[in-house]
Specification:
mainly alpha, elongated
Length: about 110
């Protein structure tokens, strides 16, 4: 298993520090952290809802109670599909931002 080079780790840590330092006041930093936490919570809720919707009747309650078929269906098919959709969406959003940032085109 390969590890992350130290210079890359330092660079990502500096970028994260620079992002929080660019926010001028402690109140704005708290709002930024709160907004990120809220968005992370909404992402988890969206993933759970996306993985629970489908043609077959498989619920999270049945999967956590010990029933094997719903557990296999949810964890083997629906949840990976929802995670991949979230990853692809985040990647596309990040790529769109990185393409528009150098030309100073504001996000739509």
């Amino acid at each position: 298993m390969t590890s992350t080079p130290p210079e890359r780790t330092r660079l990502s840590a500096r970028c994260a520090d620079a992002t929080l330092r660019s926010v001028s006041s402690a109140r704005q930093q708290q709002r930024l952290v709160g907004a990120v936490a809220l968005l992370a919570l909404l992402l988890v809720i969206a993933l759970l809802l996306a993985s629970s919707a489908g043609a077959t009747n498989a619920s999270w309650r049945a999967a956590t109670s010990g029933d094997v078929k719903p557990r296999q269906h949810l964890l083997g098919i629906r949840l990976p599909r929802a995670l991949l959709a979230g990853l692809v969406g985040g990647t596309l959003a990040g790529r769109g931002l990185s393409v528009q940032a150098p030309v100073h085109n504001p996000p739509a």
